């Protein structure tokens, strides 16, 4: 499937955008009139550059406010159009996007509008140009793709077709299934954009908040299925107006954009059992294999894990790497690092076929990570997330494979099976944090490469602004990653791993005895807990004495506590009682404030 | 009039917020439950701190999701409430905000809801606490202040009243005039917030986009008039949820907030011809007296002004300051500066009474600026805008006063009257730029201190993101300040002064002859101009040869060009033909792109 992108999605000059599009592997571009207008390069130079870069100019856009006017302005609009047709010939573009009149339309008469579109098409024919007519969601009289198509049908010209834009159709809540009734060869162009579900005026939503496919709430797989079933065989093109992407680095945003189309084509083919455009199937995630913390001196982390009751699983036989575990939760401390302070650097997940998962990751543009593997060592297949966090897939039980590479662990309570005996603990969730310009790309990465789904985002008040929290999880919840978006001026929040356990009160008491001080919770919090939930006084006292936090939902309860932050990482211990399915979000402001004091 | 502010408006810890509120001159605070909850200080400590700082605790808030429920949850809600009443006694707060149930209400029966509010009030009475019941704009059954007041009337308790919040009322478009029918003593509290006119869901609008009075679109003067006419004599309190203010420095945001109330009280008193709470009247602005560019070496600017045809008006007799003028536009070059690169540092405006204007500025918290004035020199009254730009008021004709302090100017064309002869030039507008966290404060400053009004904001695409442009102007347009809001990651855009003139084509040609190169405009721009406006070929050629930009509206035409940027400043020459009233916004993308290349 051919891929294309509108130059308006990206930052910088037109030539920089074109270079970035080619590097990201796009086949073509939509050139935005304004992007050309502000360039010093002539249309011929842009054409030649595109040829050298192997980019076709799939569309020139937009031509606005043409139809639905009286005869006198129409004459001027035809004159305007002809100037642009001449420009397009210099540029070597043969399709122009004409969007429905949103500004100057006064005539709401389909017969007259169709006649006007016909005259435009006839004029364009003299230049061998095709007109792709699109219904803007906020068009004055034409704002539904079915209406635009009806007008195209009425005008009935060989060089007049329609352009479909997923945003304009799905944002209005229009049923996309009627697309299948449009002959594929009359769909001249397809623009794709995702978007978050927002309740705001559609123009602002469109101009500021569009997202790349896979990052928002639209069902683009179903949408694209309708378009392909109609017989459309042109490029899949991205038109994403987004305040953030307009500012981010053009090269990485283009790569990020390209990945979204690979994902969409794959998911659409998979949903329809088509052979083409398929990647390896995504591998269902079984559980978290391990979490890695790295830094060039991790003695403090060793001490904290021991205090929490983790069992030392030994030193790696050939690398400065140590293993700790509590039940099925395994934490690797890796001192092969140039970083001074500890950070959460990698996540291992278990799947059926690690190689297949790695191939899918590579096909989605996730860079492979070099990992030195000595003879006899277990081979892992890491790729890097956009922020550098490494993801490892493992398709073997850890006990028989990589855990054997660790030697000298505590034999008594650590039986070499990777379990530390009594407690049925596991990694409950891993909390990652991102800056404003990294967030959407992270969502797309975890969605497309790891197959995680987005849950509703939530804003949590912190002392330096609202922190947005969006959970991404595997279908059965075995792998859960809350992603935090930090306010622009706040320091980057620390990441953390939350270990699920039973008997958290005793675990906390034992950790205290071993000298661990937890994040100090204000007394006022417990007064509020009493008011909120009417907890029994002795239970409340116990929570307060141990700095434990508490939440309750209709389906269960949640008790948790936080360790101090070491470098850029801390741990959380959590116990879920009943079917509690959240992450203690009401307590997040307490944590954010306490971590700042 | 007493002033108050909700702690949720500000960033940081509760104690930091309280210190900032006291320093800004607030009389009291509304303490947000969550702010207390995340604090290590006990309620008694907060009470004692407030006493020392001279802050009354005017309100404890919010108590949510109380009324409109069945008996069993009501019992639990009363228990919850009683815990909070006990907390309030420790805190020394005697009024609690109860907002209408948005989450758990199931009973839409006024009689039952009134009965429930009555029971809550009776419980509160035992703690000497007053209940201020407020209709949230998104309350499940109660979302109109008239409905909330009706319920309060029905419940008829001596310690039950209503709380009015301008946002909840004006955002819903409810007519505030019925407020006058509420007895003043039953309005227990008044929360004020402005907001931009946005078409989005009211909950998100409220939680993210509220503004301080004077910064948005609400008519708060009329609103407050209704409340005061009703007989309300409690504090004017700010409750402004805004993503930016949650992140900005707590001390400066508190000062900024306090200024908004001073402005609002003054405007409301003025509108009603009340004696109290009045400041000096704002001084109508007559015109721009001068613009000052400062920097420690401004020879390049001298050269550019000479090339543009400005006349040298001489050196100041006692300071390293020079004067240039073109018609009525005067530019001061001030080398008393520690800055390396030239910047637009001050604006002088002419008014009837400079002293009165300065007193109003001081009363609004604008810091006075020290200016060395030697014997016999004209005394000016500068204050600093929030970003440090200095504003001078002058109530004398410049010719007889400060211009006389400049010596050795070009006598032939500069007759000492401040005019340079032939051309009727003047300062057309002054373009200032701000970072995201400075913008609202700048709007409030120019609105309150200079009496400028905001015009609609516009987003202009630049190569590094959208630049928001909002024009602030005096009633007759004699003083016009477009304020630009730069995208967060882009470098701070240069500021500029636009000088209006006639005969711009000849002026440009003469400047070219004198060796000035203008900002180079791409050829593609002229192809677009031809398409857009169908200009005559010879006129178009002339524009293109001289790098002139052009715009046209229904009322007139606009021709302009830009100089290169020197340090952080550049000049624009503009000619308005007919009644063109804009600023050439369609050409801004061309300028932004060209300035970046």
From TrEMBL, chains A, B:
Binding positions for Mg(2+) per the UniProt entry: 429, 496, 572
The terms under GO molecular function for this entry are: 3-dehydroshikimate dehydratase activity; dioxygenase activity; metal ion binding
Task: Please state the pathway this protein functions in, per its UniProt record.
Answer: Aromatic compound metabolism; 3,4-dihydroxybenzoate biosynthesis
The cofactors required by this protein are: a divalent metal cation
Q: Which EC number applies? A: 4.2.1.118
Q: Is Manganese among this UniProt entry's keywords?
A: no
Q: Which residues form the signal peptide?
A: none
Binding residues annotated for a divalent metal cation, in chain numbering: 134, 165, 191, 239
Keyword list (alphabetical) reads:
Carbohydrate metabolism, Dioxygenase, Lyase, Metal-binding, Oxidoreductase
Tell me the ranges covered by the Xylose isomerase-like TIM barrel domain, including all copies: 19-265
Top EC group:
lyase
Q: Which reaction does it catalyse?
A: 3-dehydroshikimate = 3,4-dihydroxybenzoate + H2O
State the similarity comment: Belongs to the bacterial two-domain DSD family.
Q: Give a short account of what the protein does.
A: Catalyzes the conversion of 3-dehydroshikimate to protocatechuate (3,4-dihydroxybenzoate), a common intermediate of quinate and shikimate degradation pathways.
Q: What is this protein called?
A: 3-dehydroshikimate dehydratase
Q: What is the scientific name of the source organism?
A: Nesterenkonia cremea
